[in-house]
Amino acid sequence: MKTALILGTGWNSLINQVTVLKRESYQKLFQVESTVPGHSGELIHARLNKKDLIIMSGRLHLYEGYTPDQVTQPIRYLKKLGVENLIITNAVGGLNPKLRVGDFVILKDIFTLLAPTPLVGPKFMDVSQVFNLQLIKAAKIQADKLKLRSSLGVYAYCHGPQFETPADKRALIAMGADVVGMSNVPETIMANYLGMKVLGLAFVTNLAFVKHSHQEVLAQSQKAGANMAKLLTAI
Q: Tens digit of pLDDT for each residue in 187-225?
């Protein structure tokens, strides 16, 4: 059973904990490249705790000008490599007033109504449980063991690259979102369509109604890099 990880903004500290077997650039594999600071754009074959895994160091975003098909091309490639478990990580803004900067949120659901789907044609599928319950439980157990502040939450997607307006955030809160970000959803949809078991992990880098920048997002996530690596290793 193969496991793959998508390492979002700030989550790359894990790479320092693994034995790297091979690196391949997105440009070579998919003829596209990541343009976002903090996303190196490499597919890494690695070993961790005597287990083989595949790491996507960085991801592709719709706001970079890529189509939903291009953004999810790596997911289809992972499926061809035999990946069955996919852990998707990203940095998020906290909408739920109970959240603090530095919290981990284990995703239990996503909004899909705001994100273009990578599926074309009559590819109907059930999305009543896009994140695997066993993986959610395992992640929560490990977070608690490590004494990391964590909770379950609902993720809302916004296209970006601009951050959400106060009106956007109030609307998302009213609809039941706990966190918001600019990725994850197309990949989660495609992975479910391909039959993968998916776990979504988010790290809160900023709060809803406080001014912030991408540099701040990077700084907060990099500060927590050791805890991110510990959590992923434990899971």
A: 999 999 999 999 999 999 988 877 767 676 667 667 677
Q: Mark 135-156 as b/e (b = at least 16 C-beta within 10 Å).
A: bbeebbebbeeeebebbebbbb
Six-digit token string for 13: 């500290």
Torsion of CA 47, 18, 235, 220, to 10 degrees: -150
Return d(Cα 48, Cα 17) in angstroms, integer: 7
The residues that bridge with 5 in the sheet, in sequence order, are 55, 87
Report d(CA 178, CA 155) in Å as an integer. 6
- The amino acid at residue 191 is A
Give Dmax (Cα) for the chain.
48
